[in-house]
Amino acid sequence: MNIIRKKTSKCFIGQAIIGGESHISIQSMTNTATRDVERTINQCQQLFDEGADFVRITVPSISDVSHIKEITRKLKEKGIHQPIIADVHFKPDVAEALPSIVDKIRINPGNYIDKRNKFPTETSDFYLNKAIENTAMRAKSLLTKCKENGTAIRIGTNHGSLSDRIVAQYGNTPMAMAASAMEWIDICESFHFKNFVLSLKASNVRFMMDSYMLLSEMMEAKGTFYPLHIGVTEAGGGLEGRAKSAAGIGALLLNGLGDTIRVSLTEAPIHEIRFARKLLNILNELNSECYSIDENRLLHFSLDEPDKEKFIAGVASICSFEHYKEPIRDLHLQNIYLSGNEIKSIEQIVLQAVGIKFFYAEFISCPSCGRTEFNIEEVAARVKDRFSSYKGLKIGIMGCIVNGPGEMADANYGVVGAGKDRLVVYKGKSPVSKSLPIPEALECLEELIEKDANNC
After folding, report:
1. Residues 366, 123: Cα–Cα separation, whole Å
2. 3-state SS of the chain: helix, strand, coil percent to 5?
3. Are 53 and 261 in contact (CB under 8 A)?
4. I need a surface site. Which of 214, 257, 327, 365 has the fewest CB within 10 A?
5. Rounded to an integer, what distance in angstroms lies between the CA atom of residue 293 and that of residue 313?
6. What confidence tens digit (pLDDT) does each residue in 386-395 have?
7. Within the chain, what is the greatest distance between any pair of CA atoms?
8. Cα 235 to Cα 233: distance, rounded to the nearest angstrom
9. pTM of the model
10. Contact 151/102 with Cβ under 8 angstroms?
11. Which residues contact 375 (CB under 8 A, 6 or more apart)?
């Protein structure tokens, strides 16, 4: 399939470029503690060696600014000059300390708003405009410093952290995501700052795709088109996480959207780079002869590909791409390198990833970063092993409070990191336990789910 991307403006990240005529870049994020400088440097080097164009590092507090400064300095001493991105949540003062240190800063619009849960549902245009003006003034210092230092910004809108003002205006919808991004385009342009990338991430593939497609339409109507960073957040791990990532990223790329991608897997970051490369490769190799759709909207996909991950990347991308245009009802796969049981399993995984049919519980789990203080991969595996058979149930396993409760807001249950090897158990959006050691938290989660299941 030829990926014909919509023309976007250029965003300069150090000596690299996102958008314009540049290639689709790949990035990942370290999961080491930023204060552990040597481990973080080693992981950056591994990711760049594997083919990452950019690496993102969390900067959770002002005390970590000195650590990321040391990391960037030592990377350059090693002859590693690829761009480093700082990830900042909640603390605008931390972001403002970074423009002279890193090449790009990821911020969340939700951190520059009037206090959440304080905005009335019905408000006059005067107060809405005043709230937007206040947001702009909070962002002014960062935008000014980034402009002075030639530092790029990713405006990272997340489904789980929309402001209550945006939700009051548009509901918790893809339109709210796109409207938030458009609001920030206006803010950046008002300060003559245009070196930015936009993202609208969600753990639900359809929600995420709708958000990006709406933003694309709104930017075109405005007569401008900024580069897009795309990904399915909290996709999970294993083949399920890869299918979900491909269903969102691959389908958007086939629709011409996406200048830089990040696969989010609850695994070692190096696997994100490897699968992202496979995804881009298979999209460039596929052609219309690989699949057909019959009169019953059954998608027939045939490709003799020995790499199971690459195969599932192609299947999920095509299935999601076609399902977005007109609903697909079922899936039939052929691949001489896979057994009948493997084929059946992949069919089910892809159908569930795209949202066509459901066969088992769905797990929302983040890839972890330097903010995570427990082995999330191990905990996710234990939760998945115990509850996979609960068809239709959605369970979140989140590394920390930053994205945790928000990103798993539509989950039935979940656990969120709350300190060193400790978790808080959630039912829906509400915590139902205090901070507990991991074994106690998982026991509490199991008792809660089984109790509710028995009461049904």
Report:
1. 35
2. 45, 20, 35
3. no
4. 327
5. 18
6. 999 988 899 9
7. 64
8. 5
9. 0.94
10. yes
11. none
